[in-house]
Amino acid sequence: MHKTLSFNGEKKPWLHLLQGRNKPPFASVTRNILNVPGMPGAHLQSTDTGVLPINQPVGFVVKDDVHALELKDELVEWLITDAPVELQFDDEPGRTYFAVVQNTMDDFDRFVDQRSGTIQFLCLDPYAYGPEITEEFTSDTAIIAKQGSAAAQPVFELEVLAPVTFAMVQNQNEEYMMIGQPTDADTSTVNTKTLMLEERGQTLDTWNDTPTEIDGGTVAGYLGTDNAGITVPSYGSDMPGWHGPALIKEVTPAQDFEVEMMLEGEASGDQTFRIEFYLYDEGMNVIGKMAILDKTLNVNRKVAEGRIGGYVGRQENYLISSQNYSYGWPFYFGMLRMRRVGSIFEFYVTRIANNTKHVYSLKETYVDNNNEYAGKLKYVQIHIGKYADTARAYGPKIHYIKAFELAEATTDQTPYIAYTGDIITFDHVNEEILINGEERKDLKDFGGSFFDLHKGENQLIMHPPTSFLGNVKYRPRYR
Prior knowledge:
By secondary structure, the protein is mainly β. It folds into 3 domains: 5-126, Elongation Factor Tu (Ef-tu), domain 3, CATH 2.40.30; 133-191 and 413-478, Jelly Rolls; 198-406, Jelly Rolls (Sandwich).
């Protein structure tokens, strides 16, 4: 059976490898030296590693001229990419390159029903990679006998078991990555984020349906649960404008707060939906609202909204709207968050990818210089609706809504940066620091670095002790 290759995760069964692959044993290495007058030889300043070219002859058989054109077009569509993608050869099992195609098949040849030529791959990353390896930490430590002939870039994932003021992973060479800060002997830890409300659908009977009010519409129908979130069994009877159920709940009054909603929605054709939360002060004045909606017929258009205060007009007082957050997705899964500390409001929306990483994120701030929206948060309202007699969208759902009271740490206090169940990720491949998928490089310690796994044994330890369930993932690299 002939051997072939996989490019961008796809194989062409009609394509086979021919003899004559031209690939150097390793990428070119350039030594940058410093000559000193009067000194024999030179100093080595740095080393540059070049790209890795791979020229692979290939061939295929055609039935006729029409079939030849079809395969040629398929080949072009497959090979031309905008960025490096995975490249694997059947005769190099367990090795993956990241390559783009350059130039063309200059030696493309036709002979009866056979076609052949050379594909010129260019690996901007000159290393080959093995399959991903995962190692677990045991009692806060891990000993990694790194595989591969080159240094590897790890990804550490720490599940928080108890609130922590810092998180750190260190090796035996005193290289480390750390966020937050350890507690000094003359300071105390402080919880600056107190949970006031968490609803996932199981206790909706503790919410009220009055007094509720929604923008540009009528409260109707009722909310329910599928035991995995808050759903909308009924929008009520069709009527002009937006309509659907809303519920409101009182919380302990809080001056500084954070409200976070995880949600999803899908709409197509003539379907519409919107999912919102409204925040009210002690006098039932609207502090602000956030929403995800799709009201565009026959076109996928997911829009986010973040507004300060009540509705006063189209696009007025909106920090986030269709003007800065509008995407043509059929499906949205993500998070809305509104926070106030002092006079500063922060509105945040993000989509969440399958790997829990925040993508397509937008953060906007508003400074309430005149204290127009300075009342304490006392009521949280949720709403799911659809427009007029448009079709029901597929499964709009609130996975959860949480409300926290915030407090600032004093000079003799060290705040917690992560809580039980949070996931901290130190991604040394992409040089990212994430908490629950959200970028948090602002917490990075100045001396921390995205260190490699080195040749031989790597002794790793997590701090503080007994605070995490940890693992490290890496792909062996080969020169």
